[in-house]
Amino acid sequence: MKIFSWAGALILAPLAVMPAQDINTQLVQRLKNQPVARVNGTMLTQGDLLREMYTIFPYARTHNGFPKAMESDIRAGALKMIEFEELVYQDARRRGLTIAPAKLDTAVADFRKEFSSDQEYKDYLASEMAGSQDKLRAAVRRSLLIEQMLRAEVADRGTVTLAEAKAYYDKNPDQFRIPESVAVQTISIFPPDKATQKQLSDTANRAANALRQARNTRNYADFGLLAEKLSDDDYRVNMGDHKAVDRAKLPPQLIQAINTLQPGQMSGLVPIDQAYCIVRLNSRIPAGMKTFAEVKDALRQQLEKKKTEQLRSTLNKRLRAGAKVEEL
């Protein structure tokens, strides 16, 4: 049961997400009402902060809380987010922005539909909204005003046209160069960590057996099925297929072996440290440039994401510059 602002912050959600054995209902109420910050005199509470923390890391609901190594960073990020949203809301109020009654009614009705029963909804109102429908409507209105402000100040201005993307493509050719690459499949045989001499010998025997079977393969599919069966590397789940790999990123032993192969051919055993690899060359890909047609959609998304983040950061700095934000 939740309503999200455009920024992705959790505006409404039940707070009762802590293990029942750890806290009781009264303690939940006290904890959620503890102040954590003031924004131009408006109090933000531990409840607000926790909701945002669970938005950032929802897995905490099913994993008994936040990972200790991440908790302080999650909390810091959540605190900055709820402060930012309060600043945006206050700016929307200063500008006199409003929400049409019909739009508010629809949003409240949509929120109501997220509950599985009337009792669940009533429990939510009692625990989170002091039983008040008016308080719920005010919370939904706040969420919609934040969304309206962020759409106008960030989303709508963050659009990147096709012409802008093409200009970026033309000015940054190095980002779209394709290095000389090879499309390969592999079967890799690894020894155990800290292998004994016998284990190293067993690894060599497994590799020799894999090579005998690989020599009987006739095509991509045959080799791939064998890789799924015998290989120890992570590519075995993809039929041993590495797709296109920059030659410069391959071990020198593999490059040397690949240099002797024609597409469709396979190497013998290639020793790499204490492991062994069998490589099948599928194709050679010469160095070149990705065309604009190939990259335009992904490039526009990338540029829009960057532009949106910059606009949001600028808005945050502008709002904070004239505000009094106190973290408690």
How many distinct folded domains? Answer: 3
Biggest sheet record = 4 strands, antiparallel
Rg is 29 Å
Structural class by SSE content: alpha+beta
Number of helices: 11
What kind of oligomer do you see?
single chain
Strand percentage: 15-25%
Q: Which fold name fills CATH's third level, the topology of the largest domain?
A: Triger factor/SurA peptide-binding fold
Describe the structure concisely.
This protein is of the alpha+beta class and 328 residues long. The chain has helices spanning 25-32, 46-56, 68-94, 101-112, 118-128, 133-155, 162-171, 197-214, 220-230, 252-258, 292-321, and strands spanning 3-4, 10-12, 35-39, 42-45, 177-178, 181-189, 241-246, 270-272, 275-285, 288-289, 325-327.
Strands, helices and their partners?
Elements: E1 3-4, E2 10-12, H1 25-32, E3 35-39, E4 42-45, H2 46-56, H3 68-94, H4 101-112, H5 118-128, H6 133-155, H7 162-171, E5 177-178, E6 181-189, H8 197-214, H9 220-230, E7 241-246, H10 252-258, E8 270-272, E9 275-285, E10 288-289, H11 292-321, E11 325-327
Antiparallel strand pairs: 1-2, 3-4, 3-11, 5-10, 6-7, 6-9, 8-9
Structural description of this entry:
It is a single chain. With 328 residues, this protein is an alpha+beta fold. The chain folds into three domains: 3-159 and 306-327, Porin chaperone SurA, peptide-binding domain (Triger factor/SurA peptide-binding fold), CATH 1.10.4030.10; 162-173 and 289-303, no CATH class; 180-286, Chitinase A, domain 3 (Roll). 51% of the residues lie in helices and 15% in strands. The protein is built from eleven helices and eleven strands. The strands form four sheets. The protein has a four-stranded antiparallel sheet with strand order 7-6-9-8, sandwiched between helices. The protein has a three-stranded antiparallel sheet with strand order 4-3-11. A hairpin with a 2-residue loop joins strand 3 and strand 4. The longest helix is centred in the last third of the chain and has 30 residues, at 292-321. It is elongated, with a radius of gyration of 29 Å.
